[in-house]
Every structure is written in C-alpha cells, then in structure tokens.
Amino acid sequence: MTDLPRPLLWTLAALFTLIAWRRWAPVSYWYLFVFPRKAVWLRWSWRHVASGCGLTKKRHRWWFTTVPGLVASTGVVRVKRRFQRVAVDTKPWMGLPRPVRHGFRITFHLLDGQVPDDYAKVCERLAHAWRIEAVRVVGSRPGRVTIQGINRDPLAHVAPAAPPAEPREGWRAEDLLRPVVGVLETGAAWRMDFRLIPHWMNAGATQSGKSNLINALIVALVPYA
C-alpha cells in the first residue's frame, strides 16, 4: 500500500477541520470564515439587488456619453463625445455590514420619498436575493433604517429550558420584572418586560403556544418565589 502524497493529506486534514469547525462551533465559523466573504458579496451585489427589489430612484446626473452622429457617405459613423444629463438608477447608500450571532445587520440611508416600511415590504425578496433564512427591519431613525439578515433559523434547534436556579445574592427587583420566557428568531433572549409593558394579553388559536408561554413565565419566576 502506497502512502498518500503529503499535499493530499494536508488538503484532507484542512477539509476535515472546516467540516468539524462548522459542525461543533457554528458561531465562530460564521464570524471568522463565512461572514467576511458574505460582507464583500453583499456590497458588490447591492446595486442589482436594490434595483430588483424596487428600492432605487431615478435621478438626473451629468454623464459622459458617446452619441452617434450622421452617417457619412463612406458608411463610417461619426461619434460625438459630450457631457449631458441622463436619468440613472440611484441605489440607497449601504453601511458596512456588522456581524451578529445568527447573521448580520446593515444600516441604509433612505432616498427621498422612502420610509422604513418600504424595506419591510421587500424583506422576503431581500432574503431570497441574499440566499438567507429571513430579513427583518430592526430599527430606524430619521433618514436611516437598519435591517437584520438571519443566516439560519435559530428556532430550529432550541435547547430545553434549564431547571430554575436560585437567584444570586443582591438580585434586583428589575430582574423579577424582566423574566426570560423564550428565544427570538434573531437568537436573542425574549424577555417579558413588565416595566415597559405592564399589561399583556395572551391570545391565539388552539395549539398556538398560549399554555407554553404561561408555563415558561412560571418557570422564570419560580427562583424569585
């Protein structure tokens, strides 16, 4: 039996390392290996994506053009080079993508006449264009909108809730009023903040999760009983 060439062994070892890294440490694999390539691709393809999703606006710009002139008797076309104002598609300015645990966040400058709801309406189109799980509008301020791309569904494999633990010494009343009852699709903890919203209504169809929400709330409050 002949030994494998050393370059092939190194290639197989590197491939096995990447597969194991992606399998057992997906978060660090996303931050260090996948996100840099994704960020470059997002910036490079934004003009085409914005045009396909209807987020561009027509604006007049001075453009150096070549305009055919009269055809001479020899059949040669004379070309005139000149500056003229033409209507071009202007894309919204894209900030630098910022990595988060399960995806990325990007802030855009709104064009004249745009509102954050214009981006909320095309979230599904953006998700398909960027080949990711979902896109959500997560924040806005005058002239700006921030969206978050979710690379994979964080709710696909949710770990069961751990048994309630005794509260640490020195816990504050604010902790009692902000119990963690689940996980958001962004991967962040879902807290029922009774200081921000003191009254909640738990309603929905049968088998929609009303009882599970109440059970999760009880489990989160047990350590403080």
Task: Provide an overview of this structure.
This protein has 225 residues and is of the alpha+beta class. The chain is 34% helix and 27% strand. The strands form 3 sheets. Strands 3-4-6-5 form a 4-stranded antiparallel sheet. Strands 1-2 form a two-stranded antiparallel sheet. Helix 1 (6-24) packs across helix 2. It is flat. The model has no long low-confidence stretch (mean pLDDT 81).
Overview in brief:
This protein has 225 residues and is α+β, with helices and mostly antiparallel strands. It has six helices and eight strands; from the N terminus they run H-H-E-E-E-E-H-H-E-E-H-E-E-H.
Kindly, what is the distance between the CA atoms of the first and last residues, rounded to a whole number of angstroms?
A: 69 Å
What is the overall shape? flat
* Rg, Cα atoms, Å: 27 Å
Give the integer mean of the pLDDT values.
81
Name the structural class.
alpha+beta
**Secondary structure tally, helices:** 6
Strand order of the largest sheet: 3-4-6-5
- Give me the strand/helix succession: HHEEEEHHEEHEEH
**Which regions have little confidence, pLDDT < 50, spanning 5+ residues?**
none
Number of distinct beta strands: 8
Largest sheet: 4 strands, antiparallel
Question: In what range is the share of β-strand residues?
Answer: 25-35%
Helix share, percent: 25-40%
